[in-house]
Fold each of these.
Amino acid sequence: MKHTPIVHRRVSAKDKKKGLFIWAFVLFLGAMTIKGQLDVAYMDVAHAQEPSVTVQDRLGEVLDPKGTIYIKEGVDPAWGKIKEPKMIKARITKYAPNDSCHYPAPKGGCYVANYPKIATPGDMACPKEYKFGTKVEYNGTTYTCNDRTANWVQDKWAEPTFDIFVATSAEAKGRVFANVTIYPN
């Protein structure tokens, strides 16, 4: 049997540094993964120790940082009552029938989520925590929540999105982050 001689290759200092960096990075990723798993386990234990809370215990509690919404007994918290006018930061967009008429009315126009109402200028699509009929003031004009902002839109942005109905696609351009005032209905 013939043996092949082992050839030793010299590793440059640059290659050594590169190898050390790669190993350090792999170790860092492993440590962060373990830390993340420990954080999740800790949160599970911490939440398991919290006492159960009833709606009665939470009456009058502020639930939503986007607007002051209070729980009423026997009512889903998302549909609670707004107690007083509240100014919040919001994302304002506009929509037109040509762009988003999902439910055309037989005699023209588009039905809004507040069926059987047909969209008209002055209507606004609001996040679902605001009841139909809620008044929203933006830039000196008061709009009425008669439509719903899509869930995927709400999930994408930190601020609540209020979508103003306009007559033409040309008016439906852009978005603005501004303060709006929510009035109880």
Amino acid sequence: MRDLAERKRRQETTVSVVIPARNEERTVANVVSAIARLKAETGLVDELVVLDSDSTDATSEVAAEAGATVFRAREVAPELDAYPGKGEALWKSLLVTKGDLLVFIDADLTHWGPHFVTGLLGPLLADPGTRLVKGFYERLFARTDGSISADGGRVTELVARPLLSLWWPELTGVAQPLAGEWAARRDLMESLPIPVGYGIELGVLIDTARIHGLDAVAQVDLGRRGHKHQSSHDLAVMAAEIMLTAQRRRPDFSPSAPEHVTLRQFVREDGETRQVSRPVPSAERPPARSLRR
């Protein structure tokens, strides 16, 4: 840790930790407070920011009390309108933070540690050629009976990994392509288009490797990670977002492809099966750098 702080000081580099959050009042305080202590004790973190993405609970208030600077994503640059979604929150964070290095940490973590931040910073401070750092870990899954297994990451295994194996085999060595804990240089993030939803992690990974090569990507073993799990129906929307993000990065993608995508699902209630339709977030924000021009 002392070595990292010294490297940061010598390089005159600044660090922003960004936590996207939506309705995470039960977990966000623990995440924020641990990073706030790291910030106070080591000087490795210059900014600790929570981007609240349309929460309807006390996420913003709890995060602020725990030590974060809180922005509501919808209120950042309102003249640019707003989309719901994780990618939108991270894109908006580029407009309100100043750090040369950006560390992204999810707000719903239940099993983790502040070493997530230091681990992700390490490769960026050690090698100027590293632009993107992906965390990987044993992903814990809480079963309905309360037991814990290392069987998390369902969308990674069922969607992201098959997509990479089929279309980008050079990226199959990335252990957790959808990891919510990752870090990047600001100049990289501001140069890329950003999907507004859950496609952001895969999109940034593919774009970084395509533009800057595999040597620009590093990964770090962060140990174990536990977090809140979503229902299968919600994961299906996430999967569709990720598939659309991947499709758009194929060389044969047609610009005339439909802009609005709907996922049709079936639910059974009161003994009857009915169809429900859910929109798939499909927009992508332009590179933040273009706004300055």
Amino acid sequence: MLDTVAEKVIHGAMKMAAAEGAGFGLGGLFTILPDFSILAGITLRTIQKLSLVYGFEYNTDEEMAELWIAMASAAGVDLGRELLEKNVVNRMVPKVIQKIAAKASAEFVEKWAGRLIPVVSSLIGATLNYYFVRGWGERAHAHFRQKHLEIRRKMLHQQAALTSGS
């Protein structure tokens, strides 16, 4: 049931990103900065919504660090050792942001290349935004789904232990 809701969140964001990309795409290179900023907002909001669908709120510094980890995971950034070391949030988040920026900048260059012809760039902008949000949404969805399933397994094991212990 949660997967269905998550898919609706992703598809809604994909449509919004495509419409935004088509509109800003008409401006060619002149509108790429606002396009990229709004696209980043759509992507971040999608990841936040997916986190809530699977029951993860982000209010404390530790929870915010988890959201950045999810975003890094969605960007395809492997944090490996840094996650295992459990760095302090103030030291870890800047590193995560830096890795996300490096990964996202490659996707930004792809978008920029499509803006050379303003009229055609509207179609290209819509398509690139659509698939950009789709990719990030699917990776974030997989991250939160996996995390949710792990918590459910732990809860089931705890219930089984309590039941067998009675």
Amino acid sequence: MSFVRDALVIAGKDLRIERRSRVALQQIIPFGGIVVLLFAFALDSDRTLLHQAAPGLFWAAVLLAVLLAVGRSFSVEEANRARDGLRLSGIDGGSIFVGKAAAVAVELFLLEIVVGAAVVVLYDVTVRGIVVLLCSAVAATVGLAAAGTVYGVLAGGLRARETLVPLLLLPAVTPVMLGGTRAFQAALDGSPGDAWPWIQLLTAFAVLAVAAGTVAFGPLLEAA
């Protein structure tokens, strides 16, 4: 139980920081909305294409926002050597990983609600498989948050982390982009049976990312 309690402490810390700074509310979530709006302007002349591309554009917006959320998650610990305090806290590295990934996941869920509403309104889409949509969103979000947290700490101690994290993370989360897009497309088309293999892919990726992060985060944090 101490593992879960420590993870909740870390997640609560990160979420309180974001609530007080309002960076997620004022920057990350509006960024996702702006990306969706720009896509709508770019493809407005072809409404059919916009409707067909809606799932991919949704996950592209979320993926770009993940980079901001992950960068923010680790940049707040640069000031006043807070990362050293985290290392010396005695909390297991796996608990720190789960807590930080959970905080990022919460921010992404809020972002996805806003971006999803914008997609429905601007792209004129109708959701027919809400259960499929929710299952794929949960699995994809957990996978993105876990992978982002691992690569965030991996590049945390480097001066070029702002450019290194996208180079490391974007290729690694290709299965999430593919699976999320295909699952969302099946939900919009009203064919949920076609989505479950992709949801299984997303779930497998999320499990692997969480397992790898739980094991590797502690050594990576010490080396950062």
